[in-house]
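Hello support,

Our group uses your service weekly, and this is the first time we've seen a run hang past the timeout. The protein is Endonuclease domain-containing protein. I'm not sure whether the cause is the sequence or the server load. Input pasted verbatim:
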Amino acid sequence: MIPADEPGERVWARTDRELAPPQRAFARRMRKAPTEAERKLWWHVRHRLPMSGSHFRRQVQIGAYIADFACHRCKLVIEVDGGQHAVQTAEDVSRSGRLEAEGYRVLRFWNNDVLSNIDCVLTETMSAITATPTPDPSPQRGGEKRARK
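Update from on-call engineer: The timeout came from a worker crash unrelated to the input. Re-ran successfully.
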């Protein structure tokens, strides 16, 4: 057997990580150092959401953005915002718009809401998961076709 530090053994694994796009490496670092609110929400999402179809992932790359939590099956993104988001609202609106263009619904919660009112956060998340989506594309001109006279 070849020792792991010699060439030939799992070289592809080391080079693959070195060649990873910068966004992926950034997401990996963010997963390793979550905020207190992200850590709390992650635990509750994994242990308290009763939906079997809600498999959330942390720090997920969607397009050019990294979402705090995302469920691809439900097309739902949860963002946990700290105080810096109070001054960058235009960027957050643009980011939410881009994620919605990808087909995701975006829920935003302040860190304080997650830390002090987790039940409300989970209730709103459950409502978003179980909500009936609007038809895609929605009907034009308000409904059914009329017969011509």
